[in-house]
Amino acid sequence: MPEQRIRVLIAKPGLDGHDRGAKVIARALRDAGMEVIYTGLRQTPEMIAEAALQEDVNVIGLSILSGAHMALVPRVIDLVRGNGQSNVGIFVGGIIPEEDVPELLAKGVKAVYGPGTPTSRVVEDIRADFAAA
Amino acid sequence: MTAAESVLAGDRLALSRLLTQVENGTESGKATLDSLFKHTGHAHLVGVTGAPGTGKSCLVSQIALEVRKADPALQRSVAIVAVDPSSPFNGGAILGDRVRMRDLAGDPGVFIRSMASRGALGGLANATAGVVQVLDAAGFDLILVETVGAGQSEVDIARLAHTTIVVETPGMGDDIQAIKAGILEIADILVINKADRPGVENTERALRVNLELGYPNGGFHTFIEAGHASQDAASPSLDADVWVPPVLKTVAIESKGIAELVQTIREHREYLVKSGLLALRDRERLNHDFEVLLQERLKQDWLKTTDPSKRDEILSLVFDRKLSPGQAVERLIK
Ligand SMILES: Nc1nc2c(ncn2[C@@H]2O[C@H](COP(=O)(O)OP(=O)(O)O)[C@@H](O)[C@H]2O)c(=O)[nH]1
Ligand SMILES: [Mg+2]
Predict the structure, then answer these.
(1) Among B16, B116, B179, B195, which residue carries the largest CB count within 10 Å?
(2) Is residue A1 part of a domain?
(3) Which atom of ligand 1 is nearest to the CA of B250?
(4) Residues B124, B176: one domain?
(5) Which parts of chain B register pLDDT below 70?
(6) Model ipTM?
(7) Would you list the DSSP string of B39-70?
(8) Domain shared by B133 and B257, yes or no
């Protein structure tokens, strides 16, 4: 019988060295019934786009604490769109200064989550994005 | 272009999307799979099984790296299918095998796909065979399938793969009883990974004793001698007409023993080809697929023409012990 599941890539681009937040969100999405592809630390935008393509994910979640989001996020978006994955929703979590958020959203990010965002909100947003895609 | 044509032309996005369709069991996925079937049968399929944490993902990554760099002239392409368990409670899954495969990133000759088991208990997902067929048709020379490793039985992978690698680690299989029942029967190659850890000799001895029980007169002596010589126990009994699974030692995190392992996979394939087993196994597998689909199809057709109330009526006779299940089926079919 046909069965479709939301597939999410959780990736940590950049050089900062801990992935607790990424693991918490991965687990929450799993508990919400999603299939979460987890790729580990220090992913380059190229590695993220390649994984997103091979795994045919519906959503990419980027966890960034390093402050390099303005360089990394647009690069990931360009690569993913360049691969033809125009419907993949891109979400960003981590430490992102308020003033950078509008520009990220303008570049095509679906939502930006700061520390302490309830995981239930992320789950809802991803479900809504999937339903609309 | 149709989806099948795009996949055959090497379009990775089309391939990836088709894998999703096949995994989800959609009608279009099935139709494309059907049209690609005639392009399958080229790849060598290697299964890698063993308990969680034994280092399967690291090994798979190392095998792929080795194959990619071994014969640059041949440019042999590698696909990896890594299966992890779905939660029985919510159906979700965390697929983390790629974490161990980052050395393969950026190589256009490698394609890695993670799969959740979606309720199947045999160490693979129900759709894994279909996914492998697509990758075969897409032209990958080698397809590595990593199983969940905690399946009730791992026979599914033995049926699917040409070469099945069973991974053990020191300290796990130290006594004969500790080795999971049935696991040696499916092994074409036994790997003791984490050979940097203490207890390798004990594990090796336990595996060999078990093998000896399984292959009482299968050219075992040549194998023992070769095995004691060194790691190139890799070539046990090519001249004998039976393949006794060689026991290899690897340290996946240090790329040790990997070249020997790849060489042994190659020798196993040669053995399968020479002995005619490759064609035989292929036929057995296709026969099995055919039987399963035939049963399912006949049942579906039959259900369409049968009044469900008659079925319930006869079944209630079984519940009352007036008919055996066998008699009930006979009466229903008539
Ligand atoms: N000491 C040692 N650790 C290893 C070796 N191979 C893998 N590991 C570690 O074992 C753990 C599990 O490896 P993984 O490939 O994910 O195992 P899997 O669950 O069977 O796929 C990881 O922490 C690896 O770093 C090895 O040869 N020696
Ligand atoms: Mg693994």
Answers:
(1) B116
(2) no
(3) 27
(4) yes
(5) 150-153, 172-181, 216-240
(6) 0.96
(7) G-S-SEEEEEE-STTSSHHHHHHHHHHHHHHH
(8) yes
